[in-house]
Structures are given as structure tokens and as C-alpha cells.
Design brief:
7-stranded mixed sheet; 5-stranded parallel sheet; Amino_oxidase; chromoplast; carotenoid biosynthesis; Phytoene dehydrogenase; Phytoene_desaturase
């Protein structure tokens, strides 16, 4: 490829490592030659320079064999042209409505529970509209499902392995609004799958830059001859025709059927499910195709195939609390809002009329406001739901929504692993979902001498209660298949320096058949009480994009209800709110 951009790190076999490639500026590579053993750099503020080298693509698509004395192992690509897409423009317009809305004559004091992306998004856009959010977070760390912690060695470990897609228009707008677009490290437009029947080898779907959507996706599928046969590709394409023709209404109607059953219903061979959609299902919702609703897969495929850069991926350049969440907090506080950590809610206290009186915290103090928002995971809301609300159908339907368990594993090795890419990798393992060598893909975690693998252990239902040692042992057995020449389960090859295991017993809601009708709108039947979270009604399901969009929709509902909320008095719950 000629568009080759930002070289982050290099590995010179037989040469000294370059330890200080990262600086406050980007780097432009002027010379890359597989016959040379050095690179020539020049400092530059421009990101994404043009590099013409016939050998360039070969470096990025290497096989398991180490054939070159010089190997570029970490390359960032220019930000894709997503700003012209319809979805991006729609998201940008929604953002602008908060900034351009009439300034409230009486700014509302809005108390928001939960400083994950949904709560942060709600607070950010309400602050943009001129209101005064008070964001309460129960833990001592921001981010919710994107939280991370620093260990005693100064290394970070995260709740999950987070990928930012081009098809995340509200997230991409948020980065732009905060002025932090440069914190996304874009990777080449590919999807890379491990080959279980060929340990240590990978199969790629490469999306050509020169083709528009959906032709680039179709080309990527047709060019891959290792995972699916031509007859399987034809049957899969024919099976997808109803979704292509039927559009959004057809997609929504598939909520009631699992991926596995839908594939069989469409006459698509089980091998297609096994080869592609087990990995995709686990990546999307941490469960297998026999449980996942087909609606989830079709929504993802629609975004990836209809938007040229939809499936293009980026990594955040460091830990999410500091690199993503803090800029949102800074924006909120600059507009007069507040963010309070270690403020766990113990109870939602009600007025006699059934409306919210205040939030009671664990320390016994109370927080009062004009409006209240719950932006926690659905399981926490259900635990704290007042008895008087439990007979209301709006809340009763939440019983169907249950968070899925997931485990995130971090392993630091005593050496630099070679059989990897500067990208997200689909393991196609029975125990693991996706993984990445974060010492290569992420600027803050970069290490020229040692690898740190971050892996999603899923499905985790049977493992969530097991010890960290058991989980690491099982992970090492799987890694021995992915790195047969470098890792062995008994550590006779690469040795573990340390590890962290982060268990989330209830993560994103489990997108099983029949869950879609149970997802609530952000505006509840309780006057002055709203919900935000990826489980609420929005088109991006359980994802970071869904969380951010839910916050915007929650803020939009509050702004729309402003006149009522600014003048309201406690009222009796009507019969209509009880159904």
C-alpha cells in the first residue's frame, strides 16, 4: 500500500533496539528498504505521510516466517475520511443541537449515577446545553466498562480490550469535539483471524482503499481463500440477500432468532458459522452463535459493509481513564458541572408521589437535584430499583436484560513475541475471543523488548468464579497454539513476568433473542427520572458507541422536557405510567 503513515516502533534483528521513538511529535518515514538495517526518520507534525515502497505491504502481511532483517512492527495509519459519511453527519448535527439550544433561564441541576461512557456522555451534552450536571461514580476510577488501573510497576491493566471503529459516528464526533482525534491510533483496514488448523498462521480480510463500500468489503471476502470455499461464499451471499433487500425492518425482525439458527434457516453451511461467526459473536457480545441474536450480527455487517471505513479499527493511545475520560470530565467541569468519585449510591429515595426525592450514598449523605439519571449497567439499576416502581411495565421488562460475564487477561512476557501483528487479532479459540500485543499497538504501553498480550476470555460463564491461576493456565494452553514456536503452556519458552486478570461478572447486556423489545427508552414514566446506558434503546446495541449515543439521547430527552422539568411540582403517578 502506498498510504503508509506513522511508524511507531521497529525491530532490528541483530541490531540495538530503538528505545525512544515516541515523542510529542509524529514521525515520518522517508526510507524503508528490506535490504537495509536502518531507518531514516525526520521529525514532523504531519501524521500519515505518503510512503512509496514496493516492499511496504509485504512487511505488514508477513507470514510466520521471519524473512527480513528489518521488520516494521508498529505502524499507525492516517485518520480515515469518515467525516463525510451520513451517520457521522447525523451524529454531528445531534451534537450541535445541544450547543445551539436556547440557554435555559433556570439551568437544571441534574444528578447522574455512573461515570462510564453513558454517564459521561449524558453530562457532557447537558453541560453543552447550559445545565449543571453532577456526575456520581461509585468507584475511585472513571470509565465504567472502560476503566483501567495502574499497578505498582506503573503498568496499566484494563477492564476490556477496546477498539474504536470507523462505524462509531458518535464516538468519533466526541473525540473531535474534545480535540483529541490524535489519540486514536488507526490500523490498516484489515480483519485478521488465527488459523486453528494451522497453528501460528493467520488469514486476512483486506479492504482495499481504492474501492467504495460495499465493494471493498465484498472484495475482502472474495479474496480470502483460506477460511471459506467459493460454494460457501455463494451460499452465504445468497443467504444475506433478504437482509440486503429488506433493510432495517428486516434486521430488527431477526431479534427473535439466534445466529446459528438463522444461518441454518438461510441454508448457509455450519462451517461458515464455525469459521467466521463464532469469532464475530464472541467479539460483539462475548457469547457463541447458538446464544447471540442474529439482529446483532446484521447490525454490525450493515455498518461494516455500507460504510467504506466502517470496519477500520483504531486503538486508543493509552489508558482510557486518562486519555479519554478525563478530557470529558475537564469539559464538563469547565461548563460548571461536577464529577465526584467514591460516591456510590445506596438507595433511590422517593417522594410520596413516587418521584425521586434524592440519591442516598453509602456514607449516608444525600444528593438532590431537579432531574435524576441512572447511567449504570442495567444489573445495578435492577438492584436499586424502588419497590414502588417494580410493578411498572417499563421497569418489569428490564428483568430480561442481564449482563454477560467477561474476563480480561493481561500477560507480560520476558521477551518480544514475533508471531503477531500491529492490530486486533481474532483468536478463533474456544476460550479466547480477541487479543492484541499492546506493547506494539498502543503508544503508552509500547515496549521494544517485551510483549504484553491483552486477551478477552469469553464466553466466561463457566470461568468467572475460577481462580486467576486456573484462568492463566488455560490461557497459556491456548496461546501455545497461537505462538507454537514461542510459547508453551509449561513456560519452557517465553516466561510470564506478571499478569493481571480483570473479572466483570456483569458486563454489557446479553444480546439474546427476544431482548430488543425489553430495552427501555431513555425517558422513563417517572417524571424527572431518565436512563442512559448501552442497554437502553439505540441502534448500536451493546458497545461504546451505544453507550455514548444513549447519553446523547438521554440528554436530548431532558432538553426537550425542559419547560416541564423547570416548572414541575411533585405529582401523583398516573395510571398510564403503571403500564
Amino acid at each position: 500500500m502506498s498510504q503508509f503513515g506513522h511508524v511507531s516502533a521497529v525491530n532490528l534483528r541483530g541490531q540495538n533496539n530503538l528505545n525512544n521513538l515516541w515523542s510529542s511529535q509524529s514521525w515520518r518515514c522517508y526510507c524503508l528498504d528490506g535490504k537495509m538495517n536502518t531507518l531514516s526518520f525526520a521529525s514532523s507534525d504531519a501524521m500519515g505521510s505518503k510512503l512509496k515502497s514496493p516492499a511496504a505491504h509485504a512487511f505488514m502481511t508477513r507470514s510466520g516466517k521471519d524473512v527480513s532483517p528489518l521488520k516494521v512492527v508498529c505502524i499507525d495509519y492516517p485518520r480515515p475520511g469518515i467525516e463525510s459519511s451520513v451517520n457521522y453527519l447525523e451524529a454531528a448535527y445531534l451534537s450541535s443541537t445541544f450547543r445551539n439550544s436556547p440557554r435555559p433561564y433556570k439551568p437544571l441541576k441534574i444528578v447522574i449515577a455512573g461515570a462510564g461512557l453513558a454517564g459521561l456522555s449524558t453530562a457532557k451534552y447537558l453541560a453543552d446545553a447550559g445545565h449543571k450536571p453532577i456526575l456520581l461514580e461509585g468507584r475511585d476510577v472513571l470509565g465504567g466498562k472502560v476503566a483501567a488501573w495502574k499497578d505498582d510497576d506503573g503498568d496499566w491493566y484494563e477492564t476490556g480490550l477496546h477498539i474504536f471503529f470507523g462505524a462509531y459516528p458518535n464516538v468519533q464526533n466526541l473525540f473531535g469535539e474534545l480535540g483529541i482525534n490524535d489519540r486514536l491510533q488507526w490500523k490498516e483496514h484489515s480483519m485478521i483471524f488465527a488459523m486453528p488448523n494451522k497453528p501460528g498462521e493467520f488469514s486476512r480480510f483486506d479492504f482495499p482503499e481504492v474501492l467504495p463500500a460495499p465493494l471493498n468489503g465484498i472484495w475482502a471476502i472474495l479474496k480470502n481463500s483460506e477460511m471459506l470455499t467459493w460454494p460457501e461464499k455463494v451460499k452465504f451471499a445468497v443467504g444475506l440477500l433478504p437482509a440486503i433487500i429488506g433493510g432495517q425492518s428486516y434486521v430488527e425482525a431477526q431479534d427473535g432468532i439466534t445466529v446459528k439458527d438463522w444461518m441454518r434457516k438461510q441454508g448457509i453451511p455450519d462451517r461458515v458459522t464455525d469459521e467466521v461467526f463464532i469469532a464475530m459473536s464472541k467479539a460483539l457480545n462475548f457469547i457463541n452463535p447458538n446464544e447471540l441474536s442474529m439482529q446483532c450480527i446484521l447490525i454490525a455487517l450493515n455498518r461494516f459493509l455500507q460504510e467504506k471505513h466502517g470496519s477500520k479499527m483504531a486503538f486508543l493511545d493509552g489508558n482510557p481513564p486518562e486519555r479519554l475520560c478525563m478530557p470529558i470530565v475537564d469539559h464538563i467541569t469547565s461548563q460548571g458541572g461536577e464529577v465526584r468519585l467514591n460516591s456510590r449510591i445506596q438507595k433511590i429515595e422517593l417522594n410520596k408521589d413516587g418521584s425521586v426525592k434524592n440519591f442516598v450514598l453509602n456514607n449516608g449523605s444525600t444528593v438532590e437535584g431537579d432531574v435524576y439519571v441512572f447511567a449504570t449497567p442495567v444489573d445495578i439499576l435492577k438492584l436499586l430499583l424502588p419497590e414502588d416502581w417494580k410493578e411498572i411495565q417499563y421497569f418489569q421488562k428490564l428483568d430480561k436484560l442481564v449482563g454477560v460475564p467477561v474476563i480480561n487477561v493481561h500477560i507480560w512476557f520476558d521477551r518480544k513475541l514475533k508471531n503477531t501483528y500491529d492490530h486486533l487479532l481474532f483468536s478463533r479459540s474456544s476460550l479466547l475471543s480477541v487479543y492484541a500485543d499492546m506493547s506494539v499497538t498502543c503508544k503508552e504501553y509500547y515496549d521494544p523488548n517485551k510483549s504484553m498480550l491483552e486477551l478477552v476470555f469469553a464466553p466466561a460463564e463457566e470461568w468467572i468464579s475460577r481462580s486467576d491461576t486456573e484462568i492463566i493456565d488455560a490461557t497459556m494452553e491456548e496461546l501455545a497454539k497461537l505462538f507454537p514456536n514461542e510459547i508453551s503452556a509449561d513456560q519452557t519458552k517465553a516466561k510470564i513476568l506478571k499478569y493481571h486478570v480483570v473479572k466483570t461478572p456483569r458486563s454489557v447486556y446479553k444480546t439474546v433473542p427476544g431482548s430488543e423489545p425489553c430495552r427501555p427508552l431513555q425517558r422513563s414514566p417517572i417524571e424527572g427520572f431518565y436512563l442512559a446506558g448501552d442497554y437502553t434503546k439505540q441502534k448500536y446495541l451493546a458497545s461504546m458507541e451505544g453507550a455514548v449515543l444513549s447519553g446523547k439521547l438521554c440528554a436530548q430527552a431532558i432538553v426537550e422536557d425542559y419547560e416541564l422539568l423547570a416548572s414541575r411540582e411533585p405529582k401523583k403517578l398516573t395510571e398510564a405510567s403503571l403500564v
